[in-house]
Amino acid sequence: MARRKYVVGNWKMNGLHGAIAEAEAIFVAAQAHSAVDVALCPSFTVIGAMAAVARRVKGTVGGQDCHPAASGAFTGSVSAPMLVDAGASVVIVGHSERREGFDESDDDVRAKGEAALAAGLSVILCVGEPLAVRESDGAIEYVLLQIAGSVPETFDPQRLAIAYEPIWAIGTGLVPTLDDVAAMHGAIRGALADRFGAAADEMRILYGGSVNGDNAAELLGAGDVDGALVGGASLTAAKFLPIVEAAATLG
Ligand code: PGA
């Protein structure tokens, strides 16, 4: 089935309120590409202000993480209903920088995904192998275990996207071969079809890791790739829009 292309910017721990003009430029230009869904995920502190702009110019804003509980004594954390309250409609869960840097397990990621879906958010759930696993030819097996452990039981293909992000490709300028990307995306879809049936065909699988304006057309054209999760190249309109344009061309 035809799946709409989806290009998501993950601003990580970058971007003060002064950067919202850049987001506005991205949202406005993205309107010209109606076949592509575009979202930006800034830090919690600017979600409210960016969402106000997004309401005006028709953009989509997301969070980069959420707590599995809706509220409670969790100092420093932000819940899924809080993201909704701030104006977000999507959230990234299970990014490798959370899995590795904050010791998040597959169970944690699944609980966050369940909480986000219950709050009405769409979810981008990240998986991906470290370099040693890729070099030992175990990448597909490793990622399918992450998929088995972290994809919520309340599978909703319209509101759940998977982002395959090899850890060694994030922020390094390295990317897997197109054959490796296609094989991984096909394996992920196959595993979810085994578990959830034909609905897995509707779910979008994004590639992430060193996507830029020069390699986007190639990566987005690989088999079973429905979009991109973009870090460094999502911080400015000048770098991000060529990726959106590449997605629109492949439409
Ligand atoms: P990168 O990051 O595009 O800077 O490699 C991707 C990501 O971590 O989502």
CATH class label of the largest domain: Alpha Beta
> What is the H level of CATH, i.e. the homologous superfamily of the largest domain?
Aldolase class I
Per CATH, which architecture of the largest domain? Alpha-Beta Barrel
Order of helices and strands: EHEHEHEHHEHHEHEHEH
Supply the key terms.
eight-stranded parallel beta sheet; alpha/beta; globular; 2 domains; 15% strand; TIM Barrel; 8 strands; binds 2-phosphoglycolic acid; single chain; 10 helices; 251 residues
How are the SSEs placed, and which strands pair?
Elements: E1 5-10, H1 20-30, E2 36-41, H2 44-57, E3 62-63, H3 80-86, E4 90-93, H4 96-101, H5 106-118, E5 122-127, H6 131-135, H7 139-150, E6 160-164, H8 178-196, E7 204-208, H9 216-220, E8 227-230, H10 237-250
Parallel strand pairs: 1-2, 1-8, 3-4, 4-5, 5-6, 6-7, 7-8
The structure holds 2-phosphoglycolic acid.
Walk me through what this model shows:
This protein is α/β, with parallel strands linked by helices and 251 residues long. It folds into 2 domains: 93 residues, TIM Barrel (Alpha-Beta Barrel), CATH 3.20.20; 87 residues. The protein contains 10 helices and 8 strands. It has an 8-stranded parallel sheet. The chain starts with a strand and ends with a helix. The structure holds 2-phosphoglycolic acid. The site of 2-phosphoglycolic acid has 13 residues, from β8.
